[in-house]
Amino acid sequence: MRKMMPMNPKQLKKLMKQLDMRQLEGVKEVIIKMEDREIIIKEPIVTVIKAMGEKMYQIAGGSEEEKAIINISEEDIKLVMEQAGVDYETAKKALEETGGDLAEAILRLTDSGVE
Fold first, then answer.
1. CATH number of the domain at 74-111, out of 1.10.3210, 1.20.120, 1.10.1450, 1.10.8?
2. 14-59: per-residue pLDDT in tens?
């Protein structure tokens, strides 16, 4: 098996130019959305590779967080608003924090004294 020789930065830069590769600067996070969850990659290294008229994005490094997507209906938000006497954003946040559980969201809001 051949051992790969390390490349110096100048050679690497030349190779990246030949392959039409470049690194995106200032990327804070990448979110991959799936039907039931999201994967959030913080502080990733993102490289764009152009080949045959297409762009490919390579994502590396960073810390990864996975969270479930909760679909909250407008009716649920309105119900929590009415029952707990709170504004739209407060009701929505409570539902998100409780995984969409209406009763739990209302109880949390009324027990905490939020008006």
1. 1.10.8
2. 877 777 888 899 999 999 999 888 899 999 999 999 888 899 999 9
